[in-house]
Amino acid sequence: MSSSLAIMRVNVVRILAFRVIASAAMSAAADRCPTAPSSWTVTTKEGPDFDVCYYRAESGTGVFGIYLGFHPMFHPPSGEKGVAGSVGDRPVEWFPKKPSPGAPLFAEQALVFQTPGDPKSGPVAHIWIYGTSAQEIESVRETVTKLRW
Questions:
Q1: What region, left, alpha or beta, does residue 54 occupy, with left being phi > 0 and alpha being psi -120 to 50 degrees?
Q2: Dihedral of CA 94/95/100/104: which sign?
Q3: Which strand (E) or helix (H) includes residue 24?
Q4: Given the DSSP bridges, would you call strands 40-46 and 106-113 parallel, antiparallel or unpaired?
């Protein structure tokens, strides 16, 4: 009986250690993501030299994501101007985004640059927002103005 108790204690210690390590890893990844208002949850996926942060409204309406890295897949159309806006305190230009299959029909995207407002400084973030209506996309766009870097 004492050997089974010892095995149970070892297993409990392993489980607790795993939870602490997993929690610390999730916290470290979440620390790299901009902080959203409390009514939004964030999940993170880490890449070799980038992070992707996914945000979802607790109300179930609206989503957005942020790629943090120096090689975004999105590049604004040459010579075109987007709609002025901001992500946190950084100025951006919003451009239409073709939604992925199964995603909400309304979508926009923007780049955040190393030096705010200077495209020549290189992008550090690509943000995309989705909504099921024009009103919802406007609400999500308003939320991202409140992000804290």
A1: beta
A2: positive
A3: helix 2-32
A4: unpaired
- From the list 34, 60, 29, the residue with the least C-alpha distance to 47 is 29
The rounded distance, in Å, linking the Cα atoms of 22 and 20 is 6
Q: How confident is the prediction along the chain (149 residues), in pLDDT tens digits per residue?
A: 555 544 445 333 333 333 333 333 334 445 789 999 999 999 999 999 999 999 999 987 789 999 999 999 999 988 999 999 999 999 999 999 988 888 888 999 999 998 887 878 888 899 999 999 999 999 999 999 999 98
The secondary element (H helix, E strand) that includes residue 131 is strand 123-131
Q: Is there a contact between 54 and 128 (Cβ–Cβ < 8 Å)?
A: no
* Tokens at 39, concatenated: 């009514």
Number of residues that make up the chain:
149
Best CA proximity match to 116, nearest among 74, 139, 84: 84
The ranges assigned to domains in the chain are 33-144
